[in-house]
Design brief:
This protein is an alpha/beta fold. The chain has a single domain, classed as NAD(P)-binding Rossmann-like Domain (Rossmann fold, 3-Layer(aba) Sandwich), CATH 3.40.50.720. The protein has 9 helices and 9 strands. It is globular and about 55 Å long. It binds D-galactaro-1,5-lactone (15L). D-galactaro-1,5-lactone binds next to loops.
Length: about 270
């Protein structure tokens, strides 16, 4: 399979550049600017997601796409609009025109960040985005459903928690995703025969998980990472953080408290 990965210069893209080549030797990397440490063995094609012609050019001859490109945190509306709304549309549309068979879309836990931490949620819950960024991820999931149902592209949306070598704080003990486990989820999206449209949670085996990820397990996911192995480190880091009455209550953490207006007391009424 020829696989295109957008967002190759980003945090997740940088990790996947090291992990994917043994599995997908025919890997094409893309981003607006080339990663500074690009090696001679890597194939890189620059593209601005906001430019439809550039996006179509990188999709030529591709069997599957890992779409990790775009704006990856909360930001100004125009930046989110260009990268994650227009850019995401351009990507799905280019994939349709170029007859790409599979897309794995990097959605985010921030599509559902305003669920309180005491709620266990599955992939079918109503969207509760915690930011403009979260709204753009809901939009991407909706595009994925449309292009699966109308155009037959096999789409997997991964509501990614936090990818890294270890969980960074208490919240991340629930949502941590080991990079190798992300690779497994990408492989399911690109290769599993049963994929039509799926929303899966991008989390390792975390005992404190807020998410019911049983569909991923049904599809063969077998995560190697276990957040609790890093509990002490995460709790030490947590102790260094200031209390955040809004962010500490909701799954989305600090994304929920950014620009939060009004009564903090209304937080406790959340279901
Ligand atoms: C995300 O979606 C972001 O891309 C990442 O930078 C982290 O903030 C992560 O969520 C998180 O919730 O920890």
């Amino acid at each position: 399979m020829r696989i295109l990965m957008t967002g190759a210069a980003g945090g997740i893209g940088t990790r996947l550049r090291r992990l994917l080549p043994p599995i997908y030797p025919d890997l094409v990397l893309s981003d607006r600017d080339a990663p500074s440490d690009l090696t001679a063995s890597e194939v890189f094609r620059p593209a601005d997601l906001a430019d439809p012609a550039q996006v179509e050019a990188i999709c030529k001859g591709v069997d599957g796409i890992l779409h990790f490109g775009g704006y990856s945190v909360e930001g100004p509306w125009d930046a989110i609009l260009q990268s994650n709304i227009i850019g995401c549309y351009n990507l799905f549309e280019a994939a349709r025109k170029q007859r790409v068979k599979r897309i794995v879309f990097a959605s985010s836990n921030h599509a559902v960040g305003f669920y309180p931490r005491h709620r266990r949620i599955g992939p079918d819950v109503t969207a509760r985005p915690d930011s403009r960024y979260g709204v753009s991820k809901v939009f991407g999931e909706a595009l994925g459903a449309l292009y699966a149902d109308k155009h037959g592209i096999g789409v997997t949306c991964l509501r990614i928690g936090n990818v890294g070598d270890a969980p960074l704080d208490q919240r991340r003990l629930s949502i941590w995703l080991k990079p190798e486990d992300l690779v497994q989820l990408c492989r399911i999206g690109l290769e599993h025969r049963a994929i039509h449209f799926e929303v899966l949670y991008g989390a390792s085996f975390n005992e404190r998980a807020w998410w019911d990820n049983s569909r991923a397990y049904e599809l063969g996911y077998s995560p190697a990472g276990r957040a609790e192995d890093f509990r002490e480190h995460a709790m030490t880091e947590q102790a260094k953080l200031a209390a955040d009455p809004v962010g500490d209550f909701y799954q989305g953490g600090a994304f929920c408290s950014i620009e939060f207006d009004g009564e903090v007391s209304r937080v406790w009424a959340s279901k």
